[in-house]
């Protein structure tokens, strides 16, 4: 498990890089992907009646789902959590630790079980690309030892159920249930919530909740490309997050896809999902077509099975080890001096080019738009050796140089989420039964009844798998993310208010127009490559605010809300630290920059986005600020109203 030798291999000195030529190539490749329709090029499955069958839950067992009316005695609850993924679990856990009884919590989710994205995504080859010793939360509290360095999807889902049982949350969940509308009642200081449970006989129930937490995730709603002819296709077709083992063979715990042996399969998309599942399909399909617009940047992963003795001696070495490991992980995302010791020692921690997404704590980071050109040059100087090495890795693995050239990523690290796989993904393009359908950034022309068409060439296929991702995590409001209406004080619609003025939160968790409603970022908060760390940080912060507000209310009904002055100050602090994040503008289109739409925003909109965005100095600096706020103890900027 010593990765020293591997590191030496993967970090060869890269010489003779002509940075100006590379950046010119970046611009040309970016231009291939630019479109006027931005995110509208995709079909939002959840809002389109014609395509809603693509999001049908293949895992739900209605008979095991508790009836909504039984779960809300007297049509009310104390704390309602929207989302039963890891974020919702963490908000529940931290509230329980702060004194809320499990019986006083209700967690709703449209899914049939816990796990969020790990509930739905069960495709073959699925694993987390963040080290499990970091990614899986509460390892110290549960004593759980992950089975692999990068946990498989089934393990993550099973661990979510373990946490739910340990903290007695399992009996608080109301599955197959969606909130349609939430409206604040100023007189009773409660939220009125319209719920619908979609079982064989749907049931609508209006409930009241003293507090609501919106923790409905960032990868919730699958999307399809807006390719003509999807509904005309006659073969098997599905989205990767709704995998149909009934037509492929195998099971989530068994990637024996034996029903593909006589099938021609097309995978549309080459992001992190496709990188993981394509090798599994290639091993079984008669022929596999991988449809690519922009190639993934695929670095090594170095997977291994966890040795429990090694884990105890080298990882879980002392109390607080997981927090310290996370801190060390985050400290590698900077343009300044890196930590001497690399506890995680993976390719994430050698991807300094991710700082425009994670935020840069370097005091030399830009303070204004005028500083951006020099800053981007600094980022490219740091990043070019890594991306050059990754392109060289394609040459080392792919035997056909023409195909290899099409698989090389010509964009900076920060423009797309990096991918990691131990050779298998690139190696499939050496197989006779695999064809790369490179569309030069355009995508397919159309889909016919029995084939896909690219550049007017037809490829007959028996099955189409859309590995095309989800609604962008950084667009819309918490209301849109949950597909519901939120009405706050004075009849104010969250959708209208945020679209007009942006969020008005303190620390990203509570908006001054929406009392007793706790949010989970990332707006006006921070982010990390390990998104569950963000969720947990905000869960702890929310639990503190709720517990302290209860203490001050002394048993009386109350509302807790941020003050207008505090949110204005916080918005300005976000704005003053926003410049390091602006490097994403000018990137190859992806969900990071709303498919290039950020480039076209008006200056007035850019100012609003900067006030609404992420803490630009990184998550550890963000945590320092909110932890100092808690230690100060006065709840400055928070008002408790009786």
From TrEMBL:
GO molecular function, one term: monooxygenase activity
Stored Pfam families: Pyr_redox_2
Protein name per its UniProtKB record: FAD-binding monooxygenase
Signal sequence bounds: none
Bias-annotated ranges (Basic and acidic residues): 22-33
Domain (FAD/NAD(P)-binding) ranges: 78-298
Gene3D superfamilies, A to Z: FAD/NAD(P)-binding domain
Top-level taxon: Eukaryota
Stretch list, region Disordered: 1-33
Cofactor(s) the protein needs: FAD
Keywords in alphabetical order: FAD, Flavoprotein, Monooxygenase, NADP, Oxidoreductase
Family statement drawn from the similarity comment of this UniProt entry: Belongs to the FAD-binding monooxygenase family.
Record SUPFAM superfamilies: FAD/NAD(P)-binding domain (SSF51905)
